[in-house]
């Protein structure tokens, strides 16, 4: 578990662009069981690849005409119960942080795991997400 003071700026980076931080299993269940439209779920992390690639990539991806209806996030290593619940919706993918998942009408349609994020530029991640948004968020 990381100190809140350390991770708060990392959480705010997503909150400032419209993400709702889900800090309980109940909130995750409530939001993820709303199966209308599209939802982007980001499992946030303190790791360097989240800071250098994932969060900036997500931010850039939202500068797009097509984008998800709902933006939600959990923070691995901080909101452990909420993260565990969110990962249930990500099955059959193994736990990965950071990771970015797009749902359409409650169905997981696009997933970026840590190994898709690490070593890729924020622009590459954004381009990947923009392509998915164009396919599923119209």
UniProtKB/TrEMBL annotation:
User: Upper taxonomic classification of the species?
Assistant: Bacteria, Pseudomonadati, Bacteroidota, Saprospiria, Saprospirales
Matching entries from InterPro entries are given as: BrxB/BrxA (IPR009474)
What is the name of the protein in this document?
Answer: BrxA/BrxB family bacilliredoxin
Give the organism the record lists.
Answer: Candidatus Defluviibacterium haderslevense
What family does the Swiss-Prot or TrEMBL record give for this protein? Belongs to the bacilliredoxin family.
